[in-house]
Amino acid sequence: MPVSQLCDLGGSAPGALSWDNNASPSPLEGFKLVKGNFSRTFLRVGYHKITEIPLGARNVNIHETVKSRNYLALQTQTGVSIVNGNWVIDRPGVFEGVGTQLTYRRPNEIRSRKGESITAPGPLTEDLHVYLIYQQPGPSVYYEYNVPLENTQPTPGPDASSNILGTVKPSNPSKKDDITDNDIAKETPSTNQVPPEPSVTPQPQPTYTWTMGGHTECSRTCGNGSRHLLWDCVNGDTQAMVSADLCDAALKPSLKKEDCNNQACPAYWDVGEWSDCSTKCGPGTQHRQIICRQVTQVHSNGTESSITVAPELCGSSEKPVTKSTCQLKICSQWEIRSEWSSFHKKCSVPCGVGQRSREVVCVSNQGDVEKDEECNKNLKPDTLQNCDMGACARSWFTSLWSQGCSAECGKGNKTRTAVCLMDHVTDLPLDSCEGERPAEETSCDSGPCRNRIEWYTGPWGQCSAECGNGTQTRNLVCMINNNGHMEVVDKSKCLSLPQPMTAQTCSLKPCGVQWYVTEWSACSGSCNGGYRVREVRCLADNIAPSDHCDPNLTPESREECNKQPCLAEISPSCSDQYNNCVVVVQARLCVYTYYRSVCCASCSLAEKPYPNSFQKNHIRR
Fold first, then answer.
1. Could you tell me the domains of the chain?
2. Global confidence as pTM
3. What pLDDT digit, counting tens, does each position of 156-213 carry?
4. What 3-state DSSP class applies to 541?
5. Which secondary-structure segment (H or E) carries 619?
6. For residue range 84-93, what is the model confidence (pLDDT) as tens digits?
7. Are 121 and 100 in contact (CB under 8 A)?
8. Is 75 left (phi over 0), alpha (psi -120 to 50) or beta?
9. Considering only CA atoms, which of 103, 131, 99 is closest in space to residue 117?
10. What is the pLDDT of residue 180?
11. Is 124 exposed, middle or buried (0-12, 13-18, 19+ CB in 10 A)?
């Protein structure tokens, strides 16, 4: 909906709106400052026109003086929306329109006290209409802009007769305190103008001097503000204010800055954003955080430092609410679309106890069918109901006998299944039917077995281990079956048949923990005694190390070996210089000069007709 249409939604509550059409000239040469303030206690929710800024305006500044949940909106004279039109709230940023860039700011952090603002350098290429989207009581919007001096007509504000905007109150420009740093001195006709034709006797030329004409508004209402002194150009004789062009700009005193409003700022409530509604539909609640803060310092760049103070300093009478009711939409509800009889006239069974159904759907407040998740499942009406169709006849039913006999030859068995059914529908316990249950097994004969060769196995033998993993075996024979007469034949006659297993692993019980050993190492000496070693460990069933083995049964980890004396026939000068020369012999390293010299005795014994020195010594003993 265009803003021009929405502006008619406002109310007629009393309020206050003022602007300064006779403001004194601003420091911008050739322009005058126009300013005003829009405030109202209560309005109807919607768009309300604040003012119209004319073509050619510069330095446009519109901002909320009180932070609120209201929004500013802009529209061209031709009805084109620029910011926040058609009930759509735009994100802050820079917008193009009416020949300039318009910067839209909306601080939303909890630490910020500033409200929305819109600024534009101008000049405007057409009239700009300013609106307020009212949502919260007590709005207050300040605006100002510069217009060319040749435009002497007052800038039109909102229609004074409008039941939306209220009464227009022009400001009083005669008070010195209302002059700001954007004001300029008012022009008055000079009494010393040059006559159209010079007289014979020249008149003395007037002198013009700079005189202090007031000061700008204080930059802050509290907390160490500042303001500048303003200088007016006056006629030295009459002290009447004249145009600043008549005074020497080089002699104009510099702007002097002085402190003002040094009193401490009062504490204020810093209001956060509302949280999401607690429910997706129906009445819910939303919360927001409020903090009592106080400004401690105002920096040169305009930013403020503040601290959190006790809530009592902000006052409880003006404390904003932290909890509010909300409702995103009306909840969907369950709707019964059919009665039991019309949806499913027949019961689910022809006899006995069954069930019947009805249709239940989830419907929105618009009448549309939605997913069941949109409705409260705990409140869903029953969709199934028991129904009794009376007693059923009970009878035994049997399947057909199996096609094949259980034996390929000779006597075997055939099987079938017997069930008790009620009217061919419901499966009941087998003892619910009258009469004896039909037989489910019968004998059959596949004919005589003539010269049939088969493998026959004996029973499995004992497990080879009393605990842990072991093996067990069984006997396997090849036999010929000649019509019940069994005869053992050679196993070769059964080789064409699959042979059953004759061995398998077995485990009677877990062993728990037990000792494990490695193989013995080689003897450290070939004669005159040596020793060999092995590793001993206590392990559990999962091969994990354990400390629970019986220490009295610990296997030996070292024992003596090759105790036989070395033979005297070897030259005394030929001896082993190392204890592990037996390894040199086993590795066949005696062919090398080095090993033959350091293991002379062992290498000499290895050259004898016996395989090794141990065997030789063993035979001699």
1. 3-178 (2.60.120.830), 208-260 (no CATH), 268-326 (no CATH), 333-388 (no CATH), 522-620 (no CATH)
2. 0.28
3. 444 433 333 332 333 333 333 333 333 323 333 333 333 344 444 556 677 888 888 7
4. coil
5. helix 613-620
6. 988 888 888 9
7. yes
8. beta
9. 103
10. 34
11. buried
